[in-house]
Amino acid sequence: MLLIPCPWCGDRPETEFRYGGQAGITFPAEPESLDDAAWAGYLFMRDNPKGWFAERWVHAAGCRRWFGVTRHTVTNEILPEAPE
């Protein structure tokens, strides 16, 4: 089982968490000017690397806080990031 390091609760089993997607995705500056293709790109197009990847997680069954980690997508090794 994957252990995810919650900055507030410590290492906990993955079943306590929900994946929040790729970290660093910013909301469009002028959303009213985007066409359907641009909105689809913003909503659905994400990186899918083989290697280190910045992610967002929420500790749904614990402190309920959002935080970021960097996870290796092949080995599932996790590097904790500073709390936000």
As a whole number of angstroms, the C-alpha radius of gyration is 15 Å
**Physical arrangement of strands within the biggest beta sheet:** 3-4-5-6
Structural class: mainly beta
Residue stretches low in confidence (pLDDT < 50, at least 5 long) are none
Sheet with the most strands, sense and barrel status: 4 strands, antiparallel
Helix fraction, binned, reads 10-25%
Q: Using DSSP, what is the number of strands?
A: 6
Counting DSSP H or I runs of 4 or more residues, the number of helices is 1
Seen as an oligomer or otherwise, the chain set is: single chain
Strand content: 35-45%
Shape label: elongated
Mean pLDDT: 92
SSE pattern: EEEHEEE
Distance between the termini: 26 Å
What tags apply to this protein structure?
two-stranded antiparallel sheet, four-stranded antiparallel β-sheet, 84 residues, elongated, mainly beta, 36% strand
Summarize the structure.
The protein is mostly beta strands and 84 residues long. The chain contains one helix and six strands.
Characterization of this structure:
The protein is mostly beta strands. Helix content is 11%, strand content 36%. The strands form 2 sheets. The chain has a 4-stranded antiparallel beta sheet with strand order 3-4-5-6, with no helix packed on it. A two-stranded antiparallel sheet has the order 1-2. The longest helix has 9 residues, at 36-44. The mean pLDDT is 92.
